[in-house]
Amino acid sequence: MTHITNGFSAFALEPFPTIEAGSDIAAAITTVLNEQDLVLEDGDILVVASKIVSIAEDRYVDLSTITPSAQALDIAQRTGKSPEVVQLVLDHSTDHFLGTDRGPIIATHQLGLQLTSAGIDRAGSNGAWLLPADPDASARALRDTLAKAAGAQIAVVIADSDGRADRRGATVISIGAAGIAPLRVSEHAEPGGKTKRQEETLSDLVAAAAGVILGQRGRGAPVAVLRGIAYEADDTGVASILHKAPR
């Protein structure tokens, strides 16, 4: 079935409270919605920055506990990255390559996601944040709690900023999803009676749209609501469309 979107709106949930290890993100979202007299509606998609999910799930690593290998030291020297962070990239990925002689490091995370630096973010000068352990599961937990509180059928996409090997700058992609089919599939007839099937990563399109207002490159808000996007309700998650299965 083809779901057609003719237009949509997007807004940030702000001001958003500071998230710490153990914080209840769903409760924080509900609080902001109530404070702003906002109500979630059927079909709404909440896009949540992976950073706050990692913080809430306490995915912090103290870099003083990391001992860089010779390989990490070599890559660090070439890229200018912290040797400890490079070691974390190696520890949490199955393969990697450098986009240029000086980076970025494009790594296939153990989750099957191909991300800049395996999705690892610096946390000040002494630490780093790993990705959520299971982004799809995190998205489902958020969706279940928020849908029950709102009494509405909604979807949740967990988004992460990501660089590209072929160009400068970063975009935003989905790393977890619940309530939304990650692929938008369409079929149409071609001359000769053949049928052409096309697949779009809808969850990535949603994440990128929200990226305009999410995170450090946008307004700095960690959660956005997209309203008016047509999609198929589905819980297979982003993992279902990856070429490499999680390890």
Task: Give a quick rundown of the structure.
With 247 residues, the chain is an alpha+beta fold. Helix content is 26%, strand content 30%. The longest helix has 16 residues, at 135-150.
Task: Characterize the main sheet.
Answer: 5 strands, mixed
Coarse shape: globular
Give the helix tally: 6
The pLDDT mean sits at 93
Strand order of the main beta sheet, please?
1-13-2-9-10
- The CA-CA distance between the termini, in Å, is 32 Å
**Number of DSSP strand runs:** 13
Given helix and strand content, the structural type is alpha+beta
Please bin the fraction of helical residues: 25-40%
Integer tally of domains: 2
The run of helices and strands is EHEHEHHEEEEEHEEEEHE
> From the 3D coordinates, which CATH architecture of the largest domain would you assign?
2-Layer Sandwich
Mind telling me the C-alpha Rg? 19 Å
Identify the CATH homologous superfamily of the largest domain. Answer: CofE-like
Beta strand %: 25-35%
Remind me, CATH topology of the largest domain? 60s Ribosomal Protein L30, Chain: A
Unreliable segments of 5+ consecutive residues: none
